[in-house]
Specification:
Elements lengths: L9 E2 L15 E6 L9 H10 L6 E3 L6 E3 L25 E6 L15 H10 L20 H9 L2 E4 L16 H5 L33 E2 L2 E2 L20
Parallel strand pairs: 1-4, 2-5, 2-6, 3-5
Antiparallel strand pairs: 3-4, 7-8
């Protein structure tokens, strides 16, 4: 079942209502808060974001595993990926912006990634494919030529903020897409147990149907008119 709010994430009442999504391939954009994950919680970072009139879908602290959510997946994080004439945050069936508590110069994928599996499972439910079309991001923004960047962006999947067409951001730095996308998938539930197969009794040698009546310790009660074993108890002759 698709859930607009990530299960298990804390919620922050944001001051930005979010925008209307315009359709297209679903995608996720990763960026960083430029703060120490050992000193700032996801809840505090999300509240700070809301107080500043900015927003994101998720704020995640990869060291503690804490996640806070400000917007449902069905709304755009309007203005957060604005490169001038185009607000790329409105593009896609979903365009989920994830703000990671961390620093650009210290790639967060070099440390613990607690809670990543739950985030990816939620993104999977929104059909964000586990691919990184623009390749591994560098330490500084390396904008693609506009036509190539737009084509890669149109494929959907996962992107660094520095890889959004027209972006001038270096965030989130030289993170490893492999460490993010190769997080193990959740195990599939075991199949339900099969009910035992019930087979019909084999027919008799003379072609008549097999009898499926009750069994008794002293013999088989055959159907009326059959020549099966006598159901009456046998009485032995007494010695004279």
């Amino acid at each position: 079942m698709v859930n607009a709010w990530m299960p298990g994430a804390g919620r922050i009442r944001g001051t930005t209502p979010g925008g209307v999504l315009q359709g297209g391939a679903p995608r996720t954009v990763w960026l960083t808060t430029e703060s120490d994950p050992g000193l700032l919680s996801a809840q505090a970072a999300a509240q700070r974001l809301a107080d500043d009139g900015r927003t994101a879908h998720l704020v995640w602290n990869p060291v503690s595993g804490e996640t806070a959510q400000l917007l449902p997946a069905t709304r755009a994080a309007a203005g957060q990926l604005n490169t001038g004439a185009v607000d790329h945050a409105k593009e896609g069936r979903v365009c989920i912006v994830i703000l990671v508590v961390g620093r650009t110069l210290t790639p967060f994928t070099d440390g613990p990634l607690i809670g990543l599996s739950e985030i990816l499972n939620w993104l999977d439910s929104w059909e964000v494919t586990r691919q990184w079309p623009a390749g591994a991001p560098g330490r500084t923004a390396e904008p693609h030529r506009k036509p190539a960047g737009e084509r890669l962006w149109a494929r959907g999947g996962h992107f660094a903020h520095s890889q959004v067409p027209g972006a001038r951001s270096d965030s989130p730095g030289a993170i490893s897409p492999d460490r993010i996308l190769n997080c193990p998938l959740p195990p599939k539930p075991p199949p339900p147990p099969r009910s035992p197969e019930i087979r019909a009794p084999a027919p008799r040698r003379d072609g008549s149907p097999a009898y499926c009546g009750p069994m008794r310790d002293h013999g088989v009660i055959g159907p009326p008119g059959s020549t099966g074993l006598d159901a009456r108890p046998r009485v032995e002759a007494l010695p004279s």
